[in-house]
Design a protein that fits this description.
This protein has 747 residues and is α+β, with helices and mostly antiparallel strands. The protein is 20% helix and 18% strand. Helix 10 runs antiparallel to helix 12 and helix 16 runs antiparallel to helix 17.
């Protein structure tokens, strides 16, 4: 596993120098804006707001929630039986969009504000509270019994980190009550002002939710496509170090193995095919013989071997962990490459083989000018030796803060770009990106957050809600040493009751504007690995109470639920202060959900040092919330595996001491998988076992938002990197009449 414990976020052990841990995990605007703005039915304490890294505590005491029912008996100390419960479980009131004052940001930029990185750092990089998105490291240990040992973290494709926008404000939805009940209160929560007219959060934007849109209009030749990135420096073209925005690399380079746009399953690309033999310890790739570099020379197996070895051996490699199982790579035929592995590793195909291939002839002399063990491409002079690729765009020119690429009319993969020219500019200030889109100096923005829509919705545009490999969850702690009952959450009935109390539909609509999959259970958003038969339960407080009753919990006349020791049932959930903004808001909704059962949930948002101390050293929490982005393959072995319990393994992750023999067996099978089919089967077995013996509260898979100018057409989502396929884009000609519908089947 990656050493995200020290760096803060489950990011690879060796993070690119251009991106600090704080940058990789911070949703910049979210740090300037407190999510403590009043939420429907919520009155948060004034001192709960924090942007300086201090602990934020939010509990049921800071919300006023109407209980769904009166205590069962006058003495208030009887079991909550099914007969005593109302027949119909009450629902929360519907909330107008105007009542959602969650998109609040402070004016201006706070002192010491970090610049926004373009890197979409790894899951662990985001892991421990991840802000916008993250990515997981590659699987290090091959066997469960090989726990421990050193590990180097590996950054994922560079992500343009979105931020909430300074200056964005919203009116409070409700007026906080002067005093809040510590438990469910018989008084109704303050209602939103009836004068507030509903506000369409999308305004003039056309929302497209189709994951494979078919456009009414046909492609036409276009002039210049401009994208504005957020990474501050983009002139280091080394594909190995990932110090350049992923969007740039994806424009002029091709991967050995393609990641399917919708399933994230590996597909043939520069490798025409592959097969695994020697019991999964050898992978034979057949390389296409019809691909040429931009300089006209053919792609060869030598280029592939050089690239794979550089990813493993470069002292500045950001993806070294993906290659730890690779003993060697060599040319074994006119069009074939053999990768020798020290252990079976089917994960090598989706994670390592999906990296970009670069030209050996351009780099080999520089590479071999240094002794083995000291080789790197990071100091290569790219200005004197412009990069050469095989992709749809060819390097053109560079200016002080921009790069331009020209259309590759002979692109080997078929349809070449419709635009003649692609220009990248960049700026770390989110206000500059927003202004660029508003003045049409940028054609496409990715990612965009719900909190930014207010700055765009007065203008026409196309907003795509695309499935993304992002997950949110709160893992249970099975041994909290400060509790009178340390293993209180070891009872699966209690864990299931808590899951049944969560109204996912409510935060999906209010916070994510329904741009999230709340049905899917687990931490595997990759469709090719995910067991779609596993779904989250709908909110059902009646069933939750029955489970709590079976587990020995009682609800007394004041509405408070007592644990088996007769003490008020109180829990806490910790997350990072710079965790994903929307997730932090969703946790506040869950505070309210638990309060309806008479359970107090304290939300603590911590700075890096405090967060790391809590989950690594003292373990004094009940739930711990994460959000991050996954890679195409399997990397969560150290999240679930008992051998990676942080209490016994300093290289581990497993924060709550989760231990399940079926899960451990599935992990062993996944790490020893001799084929992709074996890998899929093992990972799905893991999911079933971790859902039956509930690992955590599954909070959903948020979608990415991508904003395009109204005349920019042809966008196709790509789950691994949404704006990868710029070659499919075109612009509606000036003066052309726009049709009533942009895509076929549009409402």
């Amino acid at each position: 596993m990656s050493d995200f414990r020290q760096d803060g976020e489950e990011t690879r052990d060796t993070m690119p120098d251009a991106v600090t841990p704080d940058q990789s995990n911070a949703d910049i605007t979210d740090l300037s804006a407190s999510p403590d703005a009043p939420i429907e039915g919520t009155a948060l304490a004034e001192d709960d707001q924090s942007s300086d890294g201090e602990t934020v505590a939010v509990s049921a005491e800071s919300v006023t929630v109407e209980p769904d029912e009166e205590p069962v008996d006058g003495d208030g100390d009887e079991p909550l039986t099914a007969d005593a419960l109302d027949e119909d479980d009450e629902e929360y009131e519907e909330i107008d969009e105007a009542d959602m004052a969650v998109w609040v940001a402070a004016e201006g930029t706070p002192p010491g504000f970090p610049e926004i990185p373009a890197q979409r750092l790894g899951r662990r990089g985001f892991l421990v509270g991840l802000a916008a998105a993250g990515v997981p490291i590659a699987g290090l240990a091959r066997l469960m019994d090989r726990a421990g040992g050193g590990s180097t973290s590996v950054p994922a494709p560079a992500l343009q980190q979105s931020t909430s926008t300074p200056g964005l404000t919203a009116s409070p939805a409700v007026t906080p009550s002067a005093a809040a009940s510590p438990v469910a209160s018989p008084q109704a929560s303050p209602a939103a002002s009836p004068e507030a007219a509903p506000v369409d959060p999308f305004g003039n934007l056309t929302v497209i939710r189709d994951q494979q849109p078919v456009y009414v209009e046909s492609p036409v030749a276009s002039d210049t496509l401009t994208l504005m990135l957020t990474m501050n420096q983009n002139f280091d073209f080394s594909p190995v170090s990932y110090r350049q925005d992923f969007q740039i690399m994806a424009s002029y380079l091709d991967p050995l193995v393609w990641i399917d746009e919708r399933t994230m399953e590996p597909r043939p690309w520069l490798a025409r095919s592959w097969r695994m033999d020697n019991e999964g310890r050898r992978i034979i790739f057949t390389i296409r013989d019809d691909v040429t570099w931009h300089d006209g020379t053919p792609l060869t197996p030598d280029d592939v071997v050089f690239s794979l070895l550089a990813y493993r051996d470069d002292t500045d490699s950001a993806v070294r962990n993906f290659f730890v199982s690779m003993e060697d790579a060599k040319v074994v035929g006119k069009s074939t490459v053999a990768v020798e592995l020290n252990d079976p590793d089917a994960n090598f195909i989706p994670n390592a083989a999906s990296q970009f291939i670069f030209q050996r002839a351009a780099l080999i002399d520089y590479w071999e000018s240094r002794p083995e063990g000291q080789r790197t491409l990071s100091d290569f002079d790219w200005e004197e030796n412009p990069p050469v690729g095989t992709g749809p765009w060819m390097y053109g020119d560079r200016e002080q803060r921009s790069l331009s690429f020209d259309r590759n009319a002979d692109y080997w993969a078929g349809e070449p770009p419709h635009f003649e020219r692609l220009v990248f500019t960049w700026d770390t200030d989110p206000r500059t990106r927003i202004e660029a889109w508003r003045t049409r100096q940028a054609d496409l923005l990715f990612p965009v957050r719900q909190s930014e829509l207010e700055m765009f919705r007065d203008l026409p545009g196309l907003l795509y809600a695309a499935d993304a490999p992002v997950v949110m969850f709160a893992a249970f702690n099975f041994d909290n040493p400060v509790r009178a009952i340390p293993n209180q959450l070891a009872d699966v009935r209690v864990r299931r009751a808590l899951s049944l109390a969560v109204d996912r539909r409510r935060y999906a609509a209010d916070i994510f504007l329904d741009c999230i999959d709340i049905a899917g259970a687990g931490t595997f958003p990759q469709p090719w690995l995910r067991d779609e038969a596993l779904v989250n339960p709908a909110v059902n407080r009646r069933a939750a109470r029955e489970l709590l009753n079976e587990a020995g919990y009682r609800r007394v006349s004041g509405g408070t639920t007592l644990d088996p020791n007769g003490e008020p049932f109180t829990l806490n959930v910790i997350t990072r202060l710079d965790a994903r903004f929307e997730m932090r808001l969703a946790l506040r909704y869950i505070v309210e959900d638990f309060a309806t059962l008479g359970i107090t949930l304290q939300l603590e948002e911590l700075d890096d040092a405090s967060f790391n101390a809590r989950w690594i050293d003292t373990h004094d929490f009940d739930l711990i919330a994460f959000s991050y982005q996954t890679y195409p393959g399997f990397t969560d072995f150290d999240l679930y595996g008992s051998n990676w319990d942080i209490r016994i393994n300093p290289q581990g992750w497993n924060p709550g001491g989760y231990s399940n023999s079926e899960v451990d067996r599935a992990i062993r099978e996944a790490l020893r998988a001799e084929s992709l089919d074996d890998l899929t089967t093992a990972v799905q077995n893991l999911q079933v076992a971790a859902n039956d013996d509930l690992f955590g509260l599954w909070l959903g898979f948020p979608q990415d938002l991508i904003l395009a100018q109204p005349n920019l057409l042809g966008f196709q989502p790509h789950m691994h990197w949404q704006t990868w396929n710029t070659r499919h884009l075109w612009r509606r000609p000036a003066g052309a009449v726009a049709p009533d519908k942009v895509i076929v089947g549009q409402p």
